[in-house]
């Protein structure tokens, strides 16, 4: 805590307000304050009269997760209902300060974390805020399994997803229930090429959102893409989307489809559970296959 701010608290006569900054994963930033006028610092305006309030921050020593909740009203100028429904605030970064509103250079960062579970009811929302130690609750380390553990294009995979032949940008022609997309043709791409891939929205009200592709099939002369779940955000005909080729995590796919076998992160020859139960025998070979 800054010494000037600490001295201000010790006077007993304070001019304090709370400020919150929310930065979504798409880069959009929002500032809120419970003061009666807008405050500004760190290049962001913290707007008053937004209806946002926060409960007390529950902090502890050790590796326990600091947590709190924020309550607010949905409005057209700040948090919109359609953005919540589309998941644009999921995992957003949150910072909370205690600020001297008479001199905003005197402030104390009380909380930093992300938005967890977010619920809405009518014209109000309630957001769970999780501290930075929440990330320590996630399993880490190498996983030993037959399929590849990397995500196509990540630091382990190192495949260049922008390489020719692995992506295509098209305008949506037909979309059914936000789940099924149809095109008259997708020339140059084999059937099932985009299965297990990704669909990213490039324009329209759903810009910035993405979904995972469940199936890529042909229906006569029509190419049909099925998503795992309906696309949120109001995706509609005429919007531009990008399709990324899918990877089923098999060694054969890595070698033949992507020519990236050197970066394959699976263990195709790892013994199965049957191998553990194998016993010496006079005939045949103990190869790790089924005992039957």
UniProtKB/TrEMBL annotation:
Domain Bacteriophage phiJL001 Gp84 C-terminal stretches: 193-274
InterPro entries, A to Z: Phage_phiJL001_Gp84, Phage_phiJL001_Gp84_C
Protein name listed in UniProt: Bacteriophage phiJL001 Gp84 C-terminal domain-containing protein
